[in-house]
Amino acid sequence: MKSIVAAGFALALVGCTTFSAQPDPSRFFTLSAQSQGEESTEKRSIRAPALSLGIGPVTLPGYLDRQEIVTRIAQNQVRLSEYDRWAEPLEEGVARVVSQNVASILRAERITSYPWPIDRKPLYQIELEVLRFETNNAQEAHLAARWTLRHTRKKDLVRYRDTRLSRPAGERSTAAFIAALSEVLGDLSRQIAQAIEEMDGKSQ
Hints:
4 helices, 8-stranded mixed β-sheet, single chain
């Protein structure tokens, strides 16, 4: 009888060891806004703080609209990271970073994310369709996007752009890949800011 009890106790210990909670190996990453130099901000229009900007909607292809970080390994093949995740929905992260970048470049104080209240419609709206946003095996970050800039009070002032940008990641690590993706968003933000300045000049 004692041997049976001992055997049962041993099995219980093995079961506890087997099914005990294991540490979660997942790692979570966020995109980051780019700092702008003082020289560039000093050259911006003095009207910039009065500009009201709306970012969105931002749309993503289905293969990017997920928590796992995606790496392209062939023209028609991607790999989903087993452990590396976005800490926020990628659509929200892209909108957040572009908003922060453009606001910093133009020194604008009024930035609104889509959807906004009907009584707080911004003067300029940037719609962004992301077509590609990932790194590859060559340690490069790539962004392909279509974006539209609208003057919401002057229907004839609309700009449509296709953008393709890339940046080297520098090293093979997820942190370096995310930094490079943040940099290509910075490059896109500068294009958008320049288009806003040009449109703002024509609207006066």
